[in-house]
Amino acid sequence: MANIFDVAKRAGVSIKTVSRVMNDQSAVRAATRERVLKAMKELDYNPSHAARELRSGRSRSIGMLFGDPSSGFQSRFHHAALQACDEVGYFLAAGLFDERADDWDKQLSAFLARTRVKNMILVPPLCGSTVLHDQLIERGVSFVLISPTQPVDGAPSISMDDFTAAKEITSHLLELGHRRIGHISGDAEHIATKRRREGYEAALAGVSGAEIDESLIQPGGFSFDEALDVAEAMLSRPDRPTAIFASNDEMAAAVYFVANRLDLRVPEDVSVVGFDDIPLARTIWPPLTTVAQPYEAMTHEAVRKLTRSDATSGPDDVTLGYELKIRQSTAPAPKR
Amino acid sequence: MANIFDVAKRAGVSIKTVSRVMNDQSAVRAATRERVLKAMKELDYNPSHAARELRSGRSRSIGMLFGDPSSGFQSRFHHAALQACDEVGYFLAAGLFDERADDWDKQLSAFLARTRVKNMILVPPLCGSTVLHDQLIERGVSFVLISPTQPVDGAPSISMDDFTAAKEITSHLLELGHRRIGHISGDAEHIATKRRREGYEAALAGVSGAEIDESLIQPGGFSFDEALDVAEAMLSRPDRPTAIFASNDEMAAAVYFVANRLDLRVPEDVSVVGFDDIPLARTIWPPLTTVAQPYEAMTHEAVRKLTRSDATSGPDDVTLGYELKIRQSTAPAPKR
DNA sequence: TTGAAAGCGATACCAA
DNA sequence: TTGGTATCGCTTTCAA
Lengths: 336, 336
Description:
The structure is a homodimer of 336-residue chains. Chain A has helices at residues 4-11, 15-22, 30-43, 49-56, 72-88, 104-115, 130-138, 162-175, 191-204, 224-236, 249-261, 295-307, and strands spanning 61-66, 91-96, 119-122, 142-146, 157-160, 181-185, 217-219, 243-246, 271-273, 290-292, 317-320, 323-325. Chain A is α/β, with parallel strands linked by helices and 336 residues long. In chain A, the strands form 3 sheets. A 6-stranded parallel sheet of chain A has the order 2-1-3-4-5-11, sandwiched between helices. A 4-stranded parallel sheet of chain A has the order 7-6-8-9, with helices on both faces. A two-stranded antiparallel ribbon of chain A has the order 10-12. In chain A, helix 1 (4-11) crosses helix 2, helix 8 (162-175) packs parallel to helix 9 (191-204) and helix 10 (224-236) crosses helix 11. The longest helix of chain A is centred in the first third of the chain and has 17 residues, at 72-88. Chain A starts with a helix and ends in an 11-residue tail after the last strand. The first copy, chain A, binds a DNA duplex (16 and 16 nucleotides) through helix 2 and helix 4.
C-alpha cells in the first residue's frame, strides 16, 4: 500500500506538499495540487488514519452512544451516521451505553479513553443527561445534540419542528371527524414531549367538540412497555377516545397491542397515529400513520457541524423539516 | 494523558517491558508485571491505539458490513458485536454496504482501504456472496461467517442448529393439532433456508394427516415485501393452512399483515411462527412465537476466533444453541 | 528477563 | 509557495 513518500516521489514534490493537499491547505499552487492528486489516484493512495491521528493528536472519529438495542429509532441514526461519516472521511465510533447502570460515568470514561474521540453526536434519550454533558465538557469533547431535552450552552442542537408536525398530524385526525383524541406523551424531561403535546393542543384549540380533556393526556415515557398500561386504561374507558396520538411509534405499537387485546379494531374502532417512522411503522398491521423524522438530514447536519472548521458558519441551532406519512391506521371517526 | 514512558518511569522499567506486559508476552517476571500493571492503573494509562496500529501494522478493529437498515436482525448483531469487541479491547468498524448496487466491490475496497481492517465478521445476507469472499481472501482479510450460505474454505463458520429448531417449532404446531402447516422459506441460496425447511419436513414426517404438500411450501426470500404476496396466495386458498411457519420474523410479520387484510385472526384462524426473535417479535400483536437466535453467543465466538492467537483452538465450525420463544401467535388448530 | 535504538506514516514547525 | 526534519506513542529487532 502506497504511502506519502510514494506519492511525493511520483508527483515530484515533498511529502509536506502532499500533506498540504490532503488537508486542503491553501498554500499550494493549483498545478502542483493537480499533480499530487493525480499521483494519489494512480497509486490508489489511502492515508493511514493511524499515522494522522498519532501525529495530529486529533481523532478522525465521531462518537455515538447507543442504548436500548431494540429501538428502531437508534438504528436509523446509526445508519445515517455511518453514511454521513463516510462522506467526510471520518469514522463512526459506536459505543454501548446502559443508561440505567450506576457506573455509566465509568462507561463513558472508558469509551472516551479507548476511542479518544473529541467529537460526539448525542441522540435521544442519552442526549438529555446533563451529567453526561458536564462530563463531556470537562473532558473537552465537543458535541452536537440531536433533538435534545433542553439546550446546552455551547453545544449546537439539531431538531425538527415537533410542534408543527404534531399539530399537523392531529389536524389530520380532526379532519377525519375525530373529536375525542387521546395523547400518550413521552418522557416528561424531553423537550420533544412538550412540543408534541403543544402541537396536539394547538390543533384541538378552537375546534368545537374537541376541547382538551386532561384525562386523555397521559405519559408513556416513549416506552412500549409503559405505554401498554396507559393505552389499556385509555381504551377501557366507557368514553374512550376514537383516536390516539402516541408521541412515538413504539407507543403507537403498544396501542395496537392493547386494542387487539380488547377486541377493538384499528382503524375502524380507534385510529392511531405515531411519531418517528421507525421501520416497524410499515411492518405492523395496519401500516401506521406517523411523522417521518429527517434522520439523514439531521445526522448529516450534525456531522457537518462537527467537521467543518468554519464552525461559525450557520446558526447554532437548526430545525429541519419532516414528512407526514399517511398510512392506514387512520379512518373517519366511528359514529356513536 | 499518560503515555508508555510515564508508565515505564513510574514502574522503574523500560518501555519495552511495559509493552510486553500490555501484549501479554510471557517473558516478564511476575513481580515486574505487577509493578507495571500497578503503574498503569495509577496513571489511568490507556495505550494509544493509533500508535499501536501504526507501528504494528495490525488493525485493532473488526469489520462488519450492514445492508438493509430496516433489518432488526442486523441491529441485534451490531449490538452484540459492539459488546464483544469491547470485551477484548477491539473496535468495531461498521460499514454500509448496498448489495443491490453494481459498484459493491468499489464499496468494499473503499471500506478496507479506509479502515484497514484485517478481520471481519460476515452476517447474512452478505455472508453468502462468494465474490465477497474471493475479494477478502485476495486482500488477505480473515473472516468468520455467521450463519453462512455455504461453507467457505479457510473461513470458520458459526451457526445455530437451524434444523432442530425448525423441527421443534413445527412440532409445537403439530402438538396444537395443526396438520396443514404452510412454510414460507427464505432465500434459496442460503443454507439456513434449506435446514429450516428440512426441519419442518422432518417434523411432519410420520404424523398422520400432516403429509407434506409442496404447494404449501413457498419461497419468500427472507423479505417482508416478498412474503406479502406469498402469504396472500397461501391464505386465500379455500384449503388454506391452519398454521404458517415463516423462515424469519419479518416474513411472519407479513403473514400477520395479510391475515389482517383478509379478516383472519391470529392465532384463532391461523397460527403463525417465525424465526430469529428480532425486536419486532414482541412488539406486534399477538406476540410472535419464534426461535431466538443466539446473537450474542455467535458474535462473541466470532470475535474470539478472530482475536485469539491460538487460532487452532477449537473446531473451525461451531454450532450454538437456540431458544424457543412460545408466545401468543399459536393456538390449537380450529375445527373445520 | 530486560533494555537501547530504529522506525511505522503522517503532521508541524521553521527555513528558504 | 515549497521543503527539511523533528516528532507523535508505540512495537520490533537486536543485543546484553
